[in-house]
Design brief:
It is a multi-pass membrane protein. The chain is mainly alpha-helical. Strands 1-2 form a two-stranded antiparallel ribbon. The protein starts with 8 loop residues before the first helix and ends in a 13-residue tail after the last helix.
Length: 178
């Protein structure tokens, strides 16, 4: 595939780093939520928070890159598919920010500060408020599951393009140059 039809190397790296971080943070989040109180649970909560802040930072970089660099031209597809793809991408970007921001707000409301990688203390996002913390916990979980559904839809569409349409869509975001 010619360079004009591929995403830039920076866009590709940001895409895959964000994908790995989201899948990892989601998996840790689901696993840790049912653990009994222990040092392991506390450690996993910290890792989950660190991943969330990292996802937020990567999302900001990715959005800035996307706004300043045009993506390759769309592949030929029916108009309805292009509209759905665009809508899913917009919702993904919204979720990239909404999920970690609600997690940060929840942590602040519950009185648990975030110290990124144990080094950089982040300011409280909202004042300490038990009821708000409980509400934000439910919102954060719902948004995380929504993000998971969007990721699955995105992956399913990419696989459909690769194996049903055979239009070379995956090569546009491949780490290997083809």
């Amino acid at each position: 595939m010619s360079p004009a039809h591929r995403y830039t190397p920076v866009a590709i790296v940001l895409h895959w780093l964000l994908a790995l971080a989201i899948v990892g943070a989601f998996g840790v989040g689901v696993y840790m939520s049912d653990l009994p109180f222990s040092l392991t649970r506390l450690k996993l909560y910290n890792w989950h928070k660190w991943a969330g802040v990292t996802i937020l930072a990567l999302s900001a970089l990715r959005l800035l890159w996307r706004l300043s660099h045009r993506p390759p031209a769309d592949l030929p597809m029916p108009a309805w598919q292009a509209r759905v793809a665009h809508a899913v991408h917009v919702l993904l970007y919204i979720a990239f920010f909404a999920v970690p921001l609600t997690g940060w707000a929840m942590s602040s409301a519950k009185g648990f500060p975030i110290v990124w990688f144990g080094v950089l203390p982040l300011p409280d996002f909202v004042p300490k408020d038990h009821d708000l913390g409980e509400l934000l916990e439910r919102v954060h979980a719902a948004l995380a599951w929504g993000l998971a559904a969007l990721v699955l839809a995105h992956v399913a569409a990419a696989l459909k393009h690769q194996f049903v349409d055979r239009d070379g869509l995956l090569a546009r975001m491949s780490l290997r140059r083809s």
